[in-house]
Design brief:
CATH class of the largest domain: Alpha Beta
Helix content: 40-55%
Keywords: DNA-binding
Distance between the termini: 65 Å
CATH architecture of the largest domain: 3-Layer(aba) Sandwich
GO molecular function, one term: DNA binding
GO biological process, one term: regulation of DNA-templated transcription
Strand content: 5-15%
Structural class: alpha/beta
Largest sheet: 7 strands, mixed
Organism: Kaistia hirudinis
Protein name: DNA-binding SARP family transcriptional activator
Number of helices: 18
């Protein structure tokens, strides 16, 4: 088979290698070279498996992720491992589970389909990207569906009607994507290219909608942002460099606060007077705070890499009496992925799919690197009038505690009590009075047979509760403590 890039979507992790081996004749191939993590490595000898290499060894777990380096490493490995084999008889299969291993991998996944096509060209191998429908996020599956020109099914390789060429998938506008699909459906030539309009993605609600990860504005990969809202507010470019918030004459804390506030306001933006009141509540005159806001907006534009006078090209736009933040197309935000991981893990747990749930929980755990907008000054973050940060921060904190509790519960069910207790301790380090975390910790200690430790755990709970909230423990947790101590 001529070198190509295909996607293969599957449900059962343990059967995928055998399934691929059965499909080799349909690709006119006889052997398989596999790149995967250890959980996909075949447990018994698979005659069709010609070579195996871990995704970590080939750089898929590095941060920042470099597909250029990965391509070079895979090309060198394939040339060595498959030396002497006839060209075109071996399939290179790459498990996409690496996309859940690091934050950098999740954020850069939209670039993978193009990299896979380059690997196919450089090695002369057919590259099959393996997408687990049970563990990968919805957006990951859509990237796979749009990113590969052919799909491998039980009936063989089929042309993919949903495929978009990399230059359109990564940099095209919705109109250009539509034109490409429509031309294929209608069997008509593509219309002449249209100019890229100014603007980018909008965020009608950052917890309700993920930004589209398959588009960037103008062909420059540096335009795409990776926004880290957990812990310190950071913006990464595609090359791994970060936006420098400190510029001459700028007020860093106010500049960061302005970015964070506009980010969460989404497409509606914020009124000039609203921003002025947020950043200078003690100003003697509104006109004074408006003038200060003008300079802070200019500083933010410079921080984000736009000339302060080039307003049309700036991601900070003024629309009548409002300012709107317009991140580049395809920008990624950690909190949106975190929420999706939490939602997906909950679905797996309710379905009894605990291994799949644990993958999502571990990915969510890695994303949460601190409280939401941790370095935004309390004077702005705790603003009770607008409540733009505090409630969201509390919600994410509680979700992180739940992530740890759910992971602990699954690990306890698997018999890994040390890992289960670690997750409980991680939750309690963030929220010392969390009933769900103390409950799970006592259940883990009971499973370990440590009755004295159960007593200490309950005492930690009541002491922390009395100190922080001045109230006794809830009856249900006390009843559990007494039952575990007696059994």
């Amino acid at each position: 088979m001529e070198a190509a890039s295909l996607a293969y979507f599957f449900d059962q992790q343990q059967d995928v290698v055998a399934a691929l081996a059965r499909l080799l004749p349909k690709l006119r191939a006889g052997s398989l070279a596999l790149v995967a993590d250890s959980d996909l490595a075949p447990t018994s000898a698979e005659p069709a498996l010609a070579a195996f290499r871990s995704a970590e060894d080939l750089g898929f777990h590095r941060a920042p992720l470099s597909f250029g380096r990965i391509r070079a490493d895979i090309t060198a490995w394939a040339a060595s491992a498959l030396q002497g084999r006839r060209r075109g008889t071996t399939i290179l299969a790459i498990d996409m589970g690496w996309a859940m291993r690091t934050t950098s991998a999740t954020a850069n996944l939209p670039l993978w389909p193009g990299a896979a096509m380059e690997i196919a060209r450089e090695t002369g191998l057919t590259v099959v990207s393996l997408y687990n429908r049970r563990t990968l996020l919805d957006e990951h599956l859509m990237i796979g569906l749009r990113g590969h020109p052919r799909i491998l099914t039980e009936q063989g390789a089929r042309s993919n009607p949903h495929w978009l060429p990399p230059e359109i998938a990564l940099r095209g506008t919705p109109r250009q994507q539509f034109d490409h699909w429509f031309a294929r459906l209608a069997d008509t030539p593509s219309p002449p290219p249209v100019s890229t309009p100014q603007g980018g993605i909008t965020f009608p609600g950052w917890l309700e909608r993920m930004p589209d990860p398959a588009a960037t504005p103008d062909g420059s990969p540096q335009q795409r942002w990776k926004i880290r809202c957990f812990g310190r507010l950071r913006i990464y470019r595609n090359d791994g460099s970060t936006v420098n918030w400190s510029i001459k004459g700028g007020a860093t804390r106010k500049t960061k606060t302005l970015f964070a506030y506009l980010l969460q306001k989404g497409a509606q933006g914020a009124a000039i007077d609203e921003l002025a009141d947020l950043l200078w509540p003690e100003a003697e005159a509104l006109e004074q705070s408006r003038n200060r806001l003008y300079h802070t907006v200019r500083s933010l534009r410079q921080v984000l890499g736009a000339d302060g006078d080039d307003r049309a090209a700036s991601p900070v736009r003024r629309e009548d009496s409002r300012y709107v933040l317009v991140p580049p197309e395809g920008s990624w935000i950690d909190i949106a992925t975190f929420e999706q991981l939490c939602r997906q893990s909950d679905g797996h747990i309710r379905a009894g799919e605990f291994d799949e749930a644990l993958i999502c929980l571990e990915a969510a755990d890695r994303l949460y690197t601190g409280d939401l907008f941790e370095d935004i000054p309390p004077d702005y973050a705790d603003d009770s009038e607008r409540d733009w940060c505090f409630s969201r921060r509390f919600w994410f904190r509680q979700m992180f505690v739940r992530v740890q509790r759910d992971a602990a519960r699954i690990q306890r069910g698997k018999g890994d009590l040390k890992a289960a207790l670690f997750h409980c301790q991680k939750a309690l380090a963030l929220d010392p009075v969390s009933e769900m975390a103390h409950e799970e910790a006592m259940l883990v200690l009971h499973a370990q047979g440590r009755r004295d430790a159960i007593e200490r755990q309950y005492r930690l709970y009541t002491t922390a509760l009395g100190r922080q909230e001045g109230r006794p423990g809830v009856p249900a947790l006390k009843a559990l403590y007494e039952r575990l101590r007696a059994s």
